[in-house]
Amino acid sequence: MLELNFSNMMGEVVGQSGIPEREIEGIKTTVYDIDKRIKAKERPELAFIDLLEQDISEIKKIASAVRGEFESFIILGIGGSALGPRAIIEALSPLHNLDKKPKVFIYDNVDPRTFDRILSLADIKKTAVNVITKSGSTAETMSSFMILWDKFNKTVPDASKRFIATTDPEKGNLRKIADEKGFKTLSIPPGVGGRYSVLSPVGLLLTEVIGINADEMLQGARDIHKRCTDPEIWRNPAYLFGVLLYIMEREEKRPINVMVPYADGLKPTAEWFCQLWAESLGKLGMGLTPYPSLGTTDQHSQLQLWMEGPEDKVVIFIKVDDYTVDAEIPKVFQDMDGLNYLGGHTLSELIKAEQESTELALAKIKRPNMTISIPKIDAYHMGQLFHFFEMATAFTGFLYGVNPFNQPGVEEGKNFTYGMMGRKGYEAKRQEVEKAREKKMCWRV
């Protein structure tokens, strides 16, 4: 079971840089109130909790067909529609395309070089495509879909049988196209936002396509949910996670949260968390700034900053208890003092020692940090991680007094893009862009 160790956040351990127990006790009434709001499903977007009990029989059916019929599987999506699937495949089937089929390509941008490379690697005649956009109008996703739909129509006689639309159950352009063309479809429940959708068909279809049992992921999420809805904060890791980081930002002026998994396969999970945390909390002049890192790699690139740079960060480690495989370091070069101590140990011993030593080094100089531990990286514990972070994010949004489910700051950029690309109804935005371009002409070197 997932565990949160927050010793190095507390004043008893890191002195004045830490949090006294009384501060957490003092926020208990607020925590109880938020807990009631969450359980009452005060906001419809809390529907992500209902995903834990969903029927996934259709997901399994479609995934089985993809595995049996196709050699490549392309996912078109952006934001949560791509970050979630990428986190799943990198954690549960690392280096997947080297020896497993169907090969998986996640296209989450509009970089033409990447798109061209994917098309050179995936044989269209042997490829299925999953288009993921809840609104059905996401410019990046729909533009790449339009290109692929045109190519498939010109190349294969049964193009519509190769497309799977994951979108709103009733509305939107993609839903309309899917119904007209006869695509297989999977629905994202109306209340589930993109960044909270990893445990919906958005992530579970890929889970099944790569041969992982999605039921195990949902079971892990259900099991951690019991702990993440305990109104007693000292027993609830999700609420405690949010409270600790909230107090650190408010009282200690530490608004930056560094997420450092000690496993290569969890780096995309850190990136997924960064969208969830930033887009949910960054509103009304408030929020917490996350950035993803990787242990031990970033001990050689970022640790200097964490140790001796500005005291504006909290470092969050993700520790893996059992890597399930290992490699022993042989007792060679025994005459070299700088190497002979390594012989006889294993890589898992070394990476665990690196994580613990970094944690202790930060604590020694009173730099707050905490550690999330999971027994191993598998579907069950990935389900726990995903749901833990989603519950913590929703809770923390309410703690800040913001809506953790909208993203108004993103919309203006979209509107300018619509104007530049000529979308009907956005002519005024195009004019704004042209005026802004005029101002930019004078200030260049």
Question: How does this model look, in words?
Answer:
- By secondary structure, the protein is an alpha/beta fold.
- The protein is 48% helix and 12% strand.
- Helix 3 (28-39) packs across helix 15 and helix 5 runs antiparallel to helix 12 (267-281).
- It is globular, with a radius of gyration of 23 Å.
Present the secondary structure layout.
Elements: E1 3-5, H1 11-14, H2 21-26, H3 28-39, H4 57-69, E2 72-76, H5 80-92, E3 103-107, H6 112-121, E4 127-132, H7 139-155, E5 163-167, H8 173-181, E6 184-187, H9 201-209, H10 214-228, H11 237-252, E7 256-261, H12 267-281, E8 289-292, H13 303-308, E9 313-320, H14 347-364, E10 369-374, H15 379-400, H16 408-421, H17 427-440
Parallel strand pairs: 2-3, 2-4, 4-5, 5-6, 7-8, 7-9, 9-10
Antiparallel strand pairs: 1-10
Helix pairs in contact: 3-15, 4-9, 5-9, 5-12, 10-15, 11-15, 12-15, 16-17
**Global structural class:** alpha/beta
Gap between N and C termini = 56 Å
- At CATH level 3, the topology of the largest domain is Rossmann fold
CATH architecture of the largest domain: 3-Layer(aba) Sandwich
How many individual β-strands? 10
Mean pLDDT: 96
Summarize the main sheet. 5 strands, mixed
N-to-C order of helices and strands:
EHHHHEHEHEHEHEHHHEHEHEHEHHH
Supply the number of helical segments.
17
Assembly annotation: single chain
Nearest-angstrom radius of gyration?
23 Å
Throw out a few tags for this protein.
five-stranded parallel sheet, 2 domains, 445 residues, Rossmann fold, alpha/beta, five-stranded mixed sheet, 17 helices, 48% helix
Report a brief summary of the structure.
By secondary structure, the protein is α/β, with parallel strands linked by helices. The protein is 48% helix and 12% strand.
